[in-house]
Each structure stands twice: as structure tokens, then as C-alpha cells.
Write a structure and sequence with these properties.
By secondary structure, this protein is an alpha/beta fold. A seven-stranded mixed sheet has the order 1-2-3-4-5-6-7, sandwiched between helices. The longest helix is centred in the middle third of the chain and has 27 residues. The two termini are 30 Å apart.
Length: 279
């Protein structure tokens, strides 16, 4: 592990992670990381707590969010760093997205009920505890009623994109997402490009080219769930398009096996991204 590096992708209880922003910061400090981004889904809520927790530790907290976009009915996640959460067009879309998540959770629960899984929306809401509701909250409720053993099994059987209880989010396209994040003063990085679409292909090269033309600054080629050939493919694609190559663990606490700090972005790459945000 690159101990001076930055883990640019972590979740907390402010979305579908299970640890507090403070716990993420303490874990990053214990590992000796240079920096940590809090990238909760469709919110910046965890950032302030993380900044406070990091005060005086030498760890840099990068303000971030993992913004939900959709292309042809499938999720595409765009990481935004150093965005101004108060910028009205972005703030309005984040509010809309969080409302959409609540409606969607209801619809996913209804579909689960239709196929005989007795989950209740009240329990899902309770598990989210005020954070934007994500599929992992629904999955946790399904495990609790005994319809599956693990969250992964719930996704495989019901909730994965295209699954029997999957419901779309009605989100903007990734090109619009990139523009919103840039207009809010931030930089946009395409999250886990290998995890979209059917099989191992990942997102189509042409989509990444289109995003680059819209101002995308980087591609998260080094994601723990990418195979070596996917890392190579997206690294080469990013370099060819003049984009930065980033890494992050996509830590979700107990919600996923990914360990905080298991993928880090070198400090010099973070500095170049910061210059993009300042430009
Ligand atoms: P949502 O934002 O509600 O669409 O949910 C997306 C989140 O669900 C991701 O950030 C992961 O935390 C989780 N997730 C997506 N696919 C899977 C999967 N196959 N197994 C486990 N968790 C998953
Ligand atoms: Zn998540
Ligand atoms: Fe994601
Ligand atoms: Fe994530």
C-alpha cells in the first residue's frame, strides 16, 4: 500500500456505509494515509464531521460525493470532489435524488412483497436512519426476514440492475452529472467503470470518450472489484484521453468486504485533480 496515498472512495452511515465519518478518519489515520475522501451517495452530509475528526491529525479530508446518474436504465456513478454543495443546480438535484431514493425504496419493497419476500418499508427507513436510502438498506431488511443469508445473495436474487425487484432511479445522464459537478466548482471522476453493463465488459469506451469531452477529469480504474484486465483497459483508456487514473476502496464498513485504504491514489495525482478544480 502507498501510505502517502489518498483513499478517494469511502462511504459512511451518511449513505449506505455502516461506519461514521469519524471512524473512517480514525481508520485512515491509523493506516497512515495521506488523505481520505468521504463519497456518500447523493449527499455531502458526512464531510463536515470528517473534517472535524481529521483536525490536527495531518490527514487531509477531501470533500466528495458519489453522484447517481443513469444511462439506458442502468446506474452510472460519478464521483465529485471539492464541489460546493450549496451551488443551487447541484443542491437541487441532490435533494431530488434523495426523494427519488425514498420513492424507489417503496417500489422495490412492493416488488419484493409481490415475489413473497415480507420486507417492510418501515424497517428499511429505520435502517437508513435519515440517510439517502440505498439498495443495501433494502437488502439488509431482506436478510433480516430470512429470505437470504447475505447482502450479496439479495443482490444476486432480487436487487442487482435488471433484477426482479430492481427499480430505476430516474437520474440524469452521466454527461449531465459531469457538468453539474464541474459547475459546482468540483472535478468529476467516473467511479468503477468496470462494474457497469452485462458481464465483465464495463462501460463502453465511447461513453468515457463522451464524458471526457464533457470535462471528466479522471477514471477510477483501480477499484478493488475490477479484474486486472479491466484495470489495464480503463487505465489505458484514461491515459489515452488525457484523464487521471484514480483509486479508492469503495469502503462500506460491514456492508462490503472492501477494506478502507485497500486502494489509494498517489498524492501527485490528487494534486493534479485539485488543479482541475481550481482552474
Ligand atoms: P443504489 O445507490 O441504491 O443503486 O445502490 C448501490 C449500492 O448498492 C452500491 O454502492 C453498493 O453499495 C451496493 N451494491 C450494488 N451492487 C451490489 C452487489 N452486486 N452486491 C452487493 N452490493 C451491491
Ligand atoms: Zn454504496
Ligand atoms: Fe458506486
Ligand atoms: Fe461507492
Amino acid at each position: 500500500m502507498d501510505t502517502d496515498g489518498y483513499d478517494l472512495h469511502t462511504h459512511s452511515v451518511c449513505s449506505d456505509g455502516t461506519t461514521t465519518p469519524t471512524q473512517n478518519v480514525r481508520a485512515a489515520v491509523a493506516l497512515g494515509l495521506g488523505g481520505l475522501a468521504i463519497t456518500d451517495h447523493d449527499t455531502l452530509d458526512g464531510v463536515a464531521e470528517a473534517l472535524t475528526a481529521a483536525d490536527g491529525t495531518g490527514l487531509e479530508v477531501v470533500c466528495g460525493t458519489e453522484f447517481s446518474a443513469e444511462l439506458d436504465g442502468a446506474s452510472v456513478h460519478v464521483l465529485g470532489y471539492w464541489v460546493d454543495g450549496g451551488h443551487a443546480p447541484l443542491a437541487d438535484e441532490l435533494i431530488r435524488l434523495r426523494g427519488e431514493r425514498t420513492d424507489r425504496a417503496r417500489r422495490m419493497v412492493a416488488r419484493l412483497n409481490d415475489v413473497g419476500v415480507p420486507v417492510r418499508i418501515e424497517r428499511v427507513t429505520e435502517l437508513a436512519a435519515g440517510a439517502p436510502i440505498g439498495r443495501p438498506h433494502v437488502a439488509q431488511a431482506v436478510v433480516e426476514v430470512g429470505a437470504a443469508e447475505t447482502l450479496g445473495e439479495v443482490f444476486d436474487r432480487y436487487l442487482a440492475d435488471g433484477g426482479v425487484a430492481y427499480v430505476e432511479k430516474h437520474a440524469v445522464t452521466p454527461v449531465v452529472a459531469v457538468r453539474l459537478l464541474i459547475d459546482a466548482g468540483g472535478v468529476a471522476v467516473l467511479a468503477h467503470p468496470g462494474l457497469y453493463g452485462v458481464g465483465d465488459a464495463g462501460i463502453a469506451d465511447e461513453v468515457v470518450e463522451e464524458l471526457a469531452a464533457a470535462g471528466l477529469a479522471g477514471v477510477e480504474a483501480d477499484h478493488p472489484d475490477h479484474h486486472p484486465d479491466q484495470r489495464r483497459h480503463f487505465r489505458d483508456l484514461a491515459v489515452g484521453l488525457g484523464l487521471e487514473v484514480t483509486a479508492g476502496s469503495d469502503y462500506h464498513g460491514d456492508g462490503k468486504a472492501n477494506q478502507l485504504g485497500s486502494a489509494t491514489t498517489p498524492r501527485r495525482v490528487v494534486e493534479r485533480l485539485r488543479e482541475h478544480a481550481d482552474a
